[in-house]
Each structure stands twice: as structure tokens, then as C-alpha cells.
Design brief:
A two-stranded parallel ribbon has the order 1-2. It is globular. It starts with a helix and ends in a 9-residue tail after the last helix. Helix 3 (about 40-50) links the parallel strand 1 (about 30-35) and strand 2 (about 55-60). The chain is of the alpha+beta class. It has helices spanning about 1-10, 10-25, 40-50, 80-90, and strands at about 30-35, 55-60. The protein has one domain (about 1-90).
């Protein structure tokens, strides 16, 4: 699984898939989603743009990335902390009124 995700998963693919997924959820009447994957800042942008509510968490694992098979944000060290600082700096809470 990791080699395929390393090859194909990037901010653009996550953004496109999120747009499709959020549109499908909204069309089905869902107003709030929970998501955990990579590049959650891209997911957050889509959720915000399309007016949905979301509980989002970026995936981080304590593994060693010696063979480049896992996305770079999974490696041990300060990467997850840097991501969290960036996410909190961008965080803004907006009320969502479905009507």
C-alpha cells in the first residue's frame, strides 16, 4: 500500500478526491464529516470552500522512512510538529448554518 500511496498521493490528488467526496456527501444531505488522511490542509480548504463542517486530522506515524515508501510527513522527528503549527496558524472557526 505505501509504495502506491507514495507514488500517487499528493496535495493535488487529495484536493480533487476531497472535492468529489464532499460534493457527494453534501448532495446526500450530510452536513458534517470526520476525516483523517494526508494533506488535511487541502481537505480543510475544500470543506471550507464548499461550506461543509468537518473534524479533520492529519495522519502521522512513528516510522523510519529509509526506503522512501511512505509519504514524507510520516517520518519520525519534527515533521508532525511543524505540520501542527502550520495547521493551527491557518485554523479559523466559522459557524456553519445549513439553511
Amino acid at each position: 500500500m505505501w509504495p502506491a500511496e507514495h507514488r500517487f498521493i499528493n496535495p493535488e490528488t487529495v484536493r480533487c478526491a476531497s472535492r468529489l467526496g464532499v460534493a457527494e456527501l453534501l448532495r446526500s444531505g450530510v452536513t458534517t464529516l470526520c476525516d483523517m488522511y494526508f494533506y488535511e490542509n487541502e481537505v480543510a480548504a475544500v470543506v471550507d470552500e464548499l461550506g461543509m463542517r468537518g473534524i479533520l486530522a492529519n495522519a502521522h506515524f512513528d516510522i523510519t522512512n529509509t526506503n522512501r515508501t511512505a509519504p514524507s510527513n510520516l517520518v519520525r522527528g519534527r515533521g508532525p510538529l511543524r505540520w501542527l503549527r502550520k495547521a493551527f496558524a491557518l485554523l479559523h472557526l466559522q459557524p456553519r448554518n445549513p439553511g
